[in-house]
Amino acid sequence: MDEVAQIRERIDIVSFISEYIPLKKMGRNFKAICPFHNEKTPSFVVSPERQIWHCFGGCSKGGDVYTFLMEYENLEFVEALRILAKRTGIQLRQSDFQAGVSGKKEMIYKINKAALDFYHYVLTKHKAGKKALGYLVEERKLDERLIETFMIGFSPKDGVDLSNYLINKKKYKKEDLIEAGLAFYGRGPSTGSGQAGVLDFFRGRVMFPLFDHRDNVVGFSGRAILEPYSGGKYINTRDTLVYHKGSMFFGLNTAKEEIKKLDKAIIVEGELDVISCFSIGVKNVVAVKGTALTENQVALISRFTNNICLCFDKDDAGYEAAKRSLLVLEKKGMNITTCIFEESKDADEAIKKDPISFKKAIKKDVPIYDFIFSKTFSAFEKDKIYGKRKISEELLPIFTKISNEIVKEHYLKKLSLDLDISLDAIAKEVEKIEKKEVIKEEIKEAKIEKKERKEVLEDYLLALILQNGNAKKILDRCLAILKNYEFKTVSYEKIINFLVDYFKSSNTFNPKIFLKVLPKELETAFDTQYLFPLPKFEDEEKYILESEKVAAELRTLFLKERIKKISLKLKTGDRDADVKKVGDLEKELASTISLLSKA
Ligand code: ZN
Description:
Helix 15 (about 345-355) crosses helix 16 (about 355-365) and helix 21 crosses helix 25.
């Protein structure tokens, strides 16, 4: 057995996954709300027997202890291997790493780290960074300690210095620089007379490195300070293998411990807001790096806390972004507050003006719906009929999306009271909004390709066979009905053939022994159906009856398809078509349908 298998053997998947998400025992398996997609009813299943997991909800992800860790922490296989090896105390050989050394992600982390060191050196030690350093220290009031903590840097404006350093000194290839988003092919004064060459992506900007929560440098955000500049005031690394817009926060690596400790995360808009907060000892702060929160970001932050304080810029754009963020936060059932400091445009400015009042505002954060409530009431006249209408049109769509029913009712009642409108009327309006939402959802769902009825039934049938204590009996009964049925899911047909073979020499079904003969490529299909959540049956007879009904419905669908095909051939005058065949098939169809009506 190799190290990978040894490690897998040593770790119990149930206790391992329990460290990340709460698991609940359900029959032979454990269940949980899937951590990889948004859902309300648990469809994430862990099997202690097979030491695997699978999600039967929207994301359909699954695998073993390695794939869970890779998915959960967004790791490469080699990284997951290293972590699990450490946990089990198993020594890895050099060959175990080979696969990962060439891994592109690892390469990008390394080259980004080299770029970070370069930028930081330029800012703190080199004359090319002197102006920028002066700006940060004098105008932005950042001290050396903050510059070190956040590893802030400066990209020289010549536009080739970083590329030259990475290629000549660090021996990276041009393609590596481009892959990491640090450079691009272009023409510039510094690439020589009209010739195209590699140019630095960031030029003349203060560089804020973006770390993931495991301290890998995934990209950079560059802020222009020297006028005039081209491009926006801020530019970010373009999407690469390791950096995806809207999937991370600035500052999470330094803030995550404090977030866990205080069980609260303050979310601000910009890097400088995070850094200013840090400078006055408020350290559970991250920046959204975009406009509104995305589902990926909410999934990430929810690993550390369920309490979010939205502290976006105090302008219209910030308010709109906060409102849009509520939707995604509510989907995860988070508690959401905000802090009030109306006189300044953002956290950074508020801290510069009066750090003590800012700290107070942070401590006295209020439920965000209270804030939205009073903001809306102060914007319209609540005593006039169209004022009432405006207020309800603004607030109801927000309140209907609150996931907790008690919180939701609290605000609906408050609205009814303050508008002097019956709760009945409010409830009617809510219903209208919810109906519209349902229709929107339905349209969305209809657009997502649905599994054919046949595929759904095949999934169910194979699960019924594999999960029964007497698999042979169920299989025999079903095969007697299915006859020459052709499976839509080819791997299932193969699994069933292997089962038939298996039962030639054994009457009892032992998955461990069966998996030894089953080809590797069919293992995932087997595991998935072996874990598939089945309903509870009163007794064995009901179980068999259900299996037979599923088989009969599949057979019916199959026969109908055949009849259609042959009839079409007859119509088009195909000589191979046979009238008698259609007659036979129709007779069989009638008798199969009668099987379905058995209850
Ligand atoms: Zn899922």
